[in-house]
Queue: 2 jobs
Job 1
Amino acid sequence: MDNSKEWHWFTGGILVSLLSVATYFVFEALELKKYPFGVTAGFGYISALFGNLFGGLAENPVIQKYTKNILEFFLLIGLVIGGYAASKQSKTFSPENIPATWEKYHGKSLTKRYLVVLVGGILLGFGAPFAGGCTTGNILQGWAHLSLGSIVAGMSFFAAGIVTAKILYPNLGGENDTN
Amino acid sequence: MILIKILLGLVIGLIFGYILTKTGITKYPRVMGMLRLKDFKILKFMMTAVISSLILFHIFGDLGWLELSPKPLSWGSLIGGLIFGTGMGLLGYCPGTLAARIGEGKKDAIIGLVGMAIGIFIYALLFKPINEIFLSGKVNGDIFQLIGVNKWIIIIPAAIIFSGIIYFVNKNFSDNKKIF
């Protein structure tokens, strides 16, 4: 992991907050909605496209809600492009099948990693709308509003994440070098 | 209008993704390092964004320039949150960083995206019972209304506590130590 070209956390944090606030203003000016941007809804749009293939789901409130989220869907595409542009720009673009850290502890098996990722993805997708938003909606935005729901959700994210990470990586090695 | 939405979505996403990747918080060892309580760059990044937005949102709110919308509290916040957190630990990404990681060429993130879409789909199928059991007893999420004090009496201590967390982890943990 080459960290030398990374921005400082402070720079990144301030820029994200300015983006949040600017977005909020733009959304309100365009009368789109009265809440800041989130990422889950973009994934929801994909689920809704899939759901709309089946006639019986047209009445489903979740599918109905996400069908309208074309902006969030393109936000998701923008995120992919942004990740690509930034990694190209700092020359850290590096296609890989499995993270090196995973490989070191859990082996080279693609099936194993992809299965864990698939299950993880399903839990993430199921949990995000259940909890009222993902990390972006609940922490970056919700904590900034000091929303009770978001504070409880964000703490639950960390609590369960910490336990899962401890199970996946019970013993850590390597003290001196950088990752 | 649809064109505006598409363009706006693309621009916001692009900037957000660029910041996430540039700051290095999309990296798998960083996410896992945070969850293993060893690498706190992501937490410092998040807390900085939270403090700054907290203050800006409420100043602009006081000026009447924007209207805030706190999220309500329900059992979903806790139970959905725990399910989400387990997924985040297994994946090593949250939804936003997952998308940016696809752009960085990480193939497992694509499987994560498929999983995420399936997960939301399952949630949609089970929405009726979930809504009845867990989401029906919603509490107003507006902490200021609930406690009934001037909101700056809560905002300023909250900002100080968040800053204290940043100060503590910044002092005690390095961002570039090899953990794994």
Job 2
Amino acid sequence: MNDRDPRWLDNPRNVTKIVYGLATLCALSFAADLFYDKHPHFGFEGWFGFYAVYGFIGSVGLVLSAKWLRRWLKRDENYYEGPGDD
Amino acid sequence: MTNPALLMMLGALGVPLLRGWPRRVLMVALPVGGLVLLWLLPEGTGATLELFGLVLNPMRIDGLSRVFATGFLVAALLTSIYALHLRDSLQQTVILVYAASAVGGALAGDLLTLFVFWELAGLSSAFLIWAGRTERSHRAAMRYLVAQVLSGLLLLAGIVVRVGAGEGLEFSYIGLGGPGGMLILVAVGIKCAFPVLHAWLTDTYPEATIVGAVALSAFTTKFAIYTLARGFPGTEALVWVGAAMTVFPIFYAVIENDLRRVLAYSMINQLGFMVVGIGIGGALGINGASAHAVADMVFKGLLFMSMGAVLMRTGTVKGSELGGLYKSMPQTTVLCMVGAASISAFPLFSGFVTKSLILEAVGQEHRTVVWLLLLFASAGVFHHAGIKIPYFAFFAHDRGFRVAEPPLNMRAAMALAAVLCVGIGVAPDLLYGILPHAMDYAPYTTPHVINQLQLLLLASLAFTVLVRTGLYPPELRSVNLDADALYRRALPAGWRAFTHGANRTRRWGPPVRRRAARLWTVATGPLRPTGRVAIPWATDLMVLWGLLLLGVVLLLTLW
């Protein structure tokens, strides 16, 4: 598809660069916790890197459990088009 | 004093009479005129009228009604611009009538006026699904209408109970304990997509027309949020209902293939935040719900607009069939990403300054579990609306679509919405200044910005890791079971099983089945595609019906 229209993103090496860039940003945001005063409502908010860890674990948990839920929830695309629906 | 809703509704009648540029000018001028009118009106109640001893107060302007009405008018302007290219006066008229109903509802000072606009909003918006003019959209519109009418009936019943108990018609704090409170809460709960009552939303919004889905995303649900904020602030149960609303849809959104349905799920998630804010109550909670509702009208509208553009150009919004569109639709891609950043609450975008009000309200109350759930839902909304939508539509695998950008008016509407998203994010005081309660809150503090960035960056890292390792669930051509299976599969199947069972008894089976079938035919006759109810109605006919309903209610309350 991209023979006529090659873009910078079409090169897998560039995508990898973006991933490394993102990882660096994450590391920086993690380290940023050392440099400011927190004013938390809850004790656990003050833990080092709480938001980062919660965001990562929450997201992975969300996606994997949603994937697991597919076992029960997934139906054929025409599930509602059958004779049962009116 | 003229009601902005009246101005828009009367003006909308002119839309089908005009052609070309005059029609376009009218469509843009009406919401703008409504906004000017709204802000010229002084605070307080307008003229009241007395009918059968009940005081009607069709227009009340205070902080809460004004901020919602402003949001509705801005959304009406965006949707009108987005619809300018259509050669379909039905949809263009209906958008304005529908928007006017939401504005009228937000300004209603009594419950009866509220009810009339409540029904008018439900009825008019159904045409935005019917306007697809296919068998599929016809059936979806019927399901939609049933939910809306059911909600209207419950509201009406609640109002009758209140009037019967001597509470009068005034629309102010209702509360769960008051007479009719539970009925009204369930009525609002349907339109507001409380868990289990939500199925109509995710079922039917994605079946609306391209323009219709944009209009639907702004008005009905936020009208319900307004009613909740007015009638049920500080209701403890709403905190938990709202928290459930933020959490359960994000699981569905991750595995849903239809990207407009993903947006519908993410809408329930956003509504959940507002419901929590209302449940917490107080200045911060109500301000947060109001501000987030206004911001949501714009950024959710923007996301629906961008997916509408994709649907228009490629003919599909299924994640399994899309990808690589950034090459041919770069402007739409960027505008969609602005919407995505706003809903994900990135600093400098609107969601950041509005959602944080609600989280702050929850934090100040030290509601640990609710707060953790909302934070999880914030990461979740970033996953499906912030990353999944742009990623699967515009990036991921290039499916070879080489299409044009959408028409200029659609891009202009998206650009205007994007400017609003960034404007609110960069200068939050613009929005904070019109909120109903005075408050002292600064969104841009070092911990808040850094913590939000940590949450979002690590959530995107999680997405990247899952995609690169192949653990991320692929987009599949499928539907997922939700509460709509109850009425779309279980009920019909149950009825068939019942009639079959009855049939086995031989003697009385066939007559029962025949009569039921005949009754069904007669009852649904007017609703079939060629039936009286399903063919396009003139707006004035709808108003007439609204008036008739009003009369019936008045008689009932009198009795």
